[in-house]
Every structure is written in C-alpha cells, then in structure tokens.
From TrEMBL:
InterPro entries: AF2212/PG0164-like_sf (IPR037079), DUF1905 (IPR015018). It comes from Asanoa hainanensis. This is Bacteriocin-protection, YdeI or OmpD-Associated. The lineage of its organism: Bacteria, Bacillati, Actinomycetota, Actinomycetes, Micromonosporales. It holds the Pfam family DUF1905.
Length: 144
C-alpha cells in the first residue's frame, strides 16, 4: 500500500504517520509487522501506536539512507511482512548454545528481538577475547 506522509521530528517516537485505513487494509492487526520502502530504501519494522496514532519509527540511519529529512513529504510503500523474524546466530554462539542444552532451550524461547540483542552484543565485540566473554555471559544469563 502506498501513501504520502510527512517525516516528523524523532521525539518521542515519531517518524511516519500511517493512516488508520492503511493499517486496517494490511490485515495484520493494530501493530502489524511491515516492510517499509521510502525513496528506494527498504527496512523492516512494526507499526507502533502512540497517543492513538499509527506510526513507523524512522531512525537517523534510515532517514539518511532514504535521503529524507524532518519536514519532507514522502511516499511510503508499506507491505505486511509475513516472513519469520529470525536472528542469525554466529557459528561460535551456535556451538556454545548447542553445548549447553539448558541455555539452548532458554535461547529458543526468546523472541527474535531478544535473540538479536544477544547476537548484536556478541558481534559488536572488537577483540576475540571480548567476543568470547560476551558469549560466556550470554550462556550464563540464559542458564539463569
């Protein structure tokens, strides 16, 4: 579905307002997972509801990649995102999880967002020792 909207200032959690009729036509509920395209730049997100308005967050990185600024009127192409949201486990995390059945079971019960947080913490390590410590910390946290 395509619609036009203004790029709103990013405080607090503003970005792109989605008309209620568009949200309803998507058929994914009040907060559907979506794929958003603005000026050829595409990203995945979820429609948020704030003060009765349906909104799409628009990070600074996505504004830059789409070549838009606060105050611009933009055309948004919004599609219901039915693809599963899965965090891609790095091999060393997979090996550590597979070696600890309790941690693996706990990890598998996490939402994809929670899994991505663990993956992001591990992948953002600059040194191998830091990466290993973060994997060990994740396993310990998951074990409880």
């Amino acid at each position: 579905m395509k619609f036009r909207t203004l790029v709103e200032p990013p405080e607090p959690m503003r970005g792109l307002e989605v008309p209620p009729a568009v949200v309803e036509a998507l058929g994914g509920g009040a907060r559907p997972p979506v794929t958003i395209t603005v000026n050829g730049h595409t990203w995945r997100s979820r429609v948020a509801i704030m003060r009765g308005r349906h909104l799409l967050g628009l990070s600074s990185a996505n504004r830059t990649a789409a070549g838009v600024a606060v105050g611009d009127e933009v055309e948004v192409d919004l599609v219901l995102d039915t693809e599963p949201r899965v965090a891609v486990e790095p091999a060393d995390l997979t090996a550590a999880l597979d070696a600890d059945p309790a941690a693996r079971a706990a990890y598998d019960k996490l939402t994809s967002s929670q899994q991505r947080e663990h993956v992001r913490a591990i992948e953002s390590a600059k040194k191998p020792e830091t990466r290993q410590r973060r994997i060990e910390k994740a396993i310990a946290t998951l074990r409880g």
